[in-house]
From TrEMBL:
UniProt region (Disordered), positions on chain: 1-27
Basic and acidic residues bias (residue ranges): 9-22
Name of the protein: Protein-disulfide isomerase
Keyword Plastid carried by entry: no
InterPro entries listed in its UniProt record: Thioredoxin-like_fold, Thioredoxin-like_sf
Domain Thioredoxin-like fold, first and last residues per copy: 129-280
Keywords assigned: Isomerase, Membrane, Transmembrane, Transmembrane helix
Molecular function, one GO term: isomerase activity
Segments passing through the bilayer: 37-59
SUPFAM superfamilies: Thioredoxin-like
Length: 287
C-alpha cells in the first residue's frame, strides 16, 4: 500500500500564496520604477536636444549664416559707412542696399589704404572725417574716450562731417561675434533714432573695460540713450551691412583700427600725436 505524502495545510498554502503575491508585487514595482526612470531619461534627453538646437541656432545666427545682401540703415551709404552731419543728425540717405559679392577684389600686399567713395570736402564746406572702428578694439575705445567730446563739439559747430565705418576685424577673437553684433546695434540706432547715434556710440566704447555685451545689454544701452531697437538687434537686421563694411575695409587695404582720415589724408598718430590740432588746422585751411 502506497504511503500518503503529507499535504500542506490550508494555513501554509495561504502563506505561500501571500509570499508569491508579495514577490510579484515587488517585481511589478521594480518594473514600474525602471519604466518611470526610462521615461524621465527620455524627457531629459529630449529637453537637452531642444536646448542644444536652440544654442546651435543662436550660434549659427551670430556667425556664418549672415546674408550676403541687405539693407543700409538710414544715414548710411553704399560704402558701408554712417555719416553724421551734426551731433544730432545723420546724412539724408535711405533705401540703399549692399551686396558683399560686389565688394571687389582683395588688394595687393602692402597696398595703400584707399577708402572707397571718400574724398576731401570742397573749400568752404565742413571738412570730412572718416573713422574705421571696431567696438571690441581697445585703441578705438581709447580714441573715443579722448576725442569723442571734441568730435561732438566740431559737429555741433558745423565744422566737420564724421563718417563711421564700423568693422569686425576682431570677431575671430570673440565667441559671440561681438564686433559684428556691436556694428549691427549701431546701425539699428542710426536707422531708428538718428539723434541717439552719437550718444550710443560713446556709451558702447565707454563700456569696453567691462567686456563684451550680450544683445540684452546692447538693447538696454540703446534704450538708455533714447533708442528702442530690441527687435532690430535681436534679429540682426543690419548684420549684412556690417558684414559688407568689414569686407569693404579689407578690400580697401585698411590695416587696423582706429584708422582715421582727415580730408582724405590718413592721420598718423606717431608723426602728429595731437589729433585735435590736426583737425583744427584742416578746418581753418578749408574755410
Amino acid at each position: 500500500m502506497a504511503s500518503n505524502s503529507q499535504r500542506p495545510s490550508k494555513a501554509e498554502r495561504t502563506a505561500s500564496a501571500r509570499e508569491q503575491a508579495k514577490k510579484m508585487h515587488a517585481a511589478q514595482e521594480a518594473a514600474d520604477k525602471r519604466k518611470s526612470l526610462f521615461i524621465k531619461l527620455g524627457v531629459l534627453v529630449a529637453v537637452l536636444a531642444v536646448v542644444a538646437l536652440v544654442v546651435a541656432l543662436v550660434l549659427q545666427k551670430n556667425s556664418g549664416t549672415v546674408a550676403d545682401t541687405g539693407a543700409v540703415p538710414k544715414g548710411g551709404n553704399a560704402a558701408g559707412g554712417i555719416t553724421l552731419t551734426s551731433d544730432k543728425t545723420l546724412a539724408d540717405t535711405s533705401g540703399l542696399t549692399v551686396d558683399i559679392n560686389k565688394v571687389g577684389a582683395a588688394p595687393a600686399e602692402g597696398a595703400t589704404p584707399t577708402p572707397r567713395d571718400y574724398k576731401a570736402a570742397p573749400k568752404g564746406e565742413p571738412i570730412n572725417l572718416l573713422l574705421y572702428v571696431d567696438v571690441n578694439c581697445v585703441h578705438c575705445a581709447d580714441f573715443e574716450t579722448e576725442y569723442a567730446g571734441q568730435i561732438s563739439t566740431w559737429l555741433a559747430a558745423g565744422d566737420v562731417t564724421v563718417e563711421y565705418r564700423t568693422v569686425a576685424f576682431l570677431d575671430g577673437a570673440s565667441p559671440t561675434n561681438y564686433s559684428s553684433r556691436g556694428a549691427n546695434a549701431l546701425a539699428c540706432v542710426a536707422d531708428a533714432a538718428p539723434a541717439s547715434y552719437l550718444p550710443f556710440s560713446k556709451a558702447v566704447f565707454a563700456h569696453y573695460p567691462e567686456g563684451e555685451m550680450k544683445n540684452k545689454q546692447l538693447i538696454q544701452l540703446a534704450k538708455d540713450n533714447g533708442a528702442d531697437v530690441a527687435s532690430c538687434i535681436n534679429d540682426g537686421t543690419f548684420r549684412p551691412f556690417a558684414k559688407f563694411t568689414d569686407a569693404a575695409a579689407r578690400v580697401d587695404a585698411i590695416g587696423g583700427t582706429p584708422s582715421v582720415f582727415v580730408q582724405d589724408k590718413l592721420w598718423d598718430p606717431n608723426a602728429e600725436p595731437d589729433f585735435g590740432a590736426v583737425v583744427d588746422a584742416a578746418i581753418k585751411a578749408n574755410k
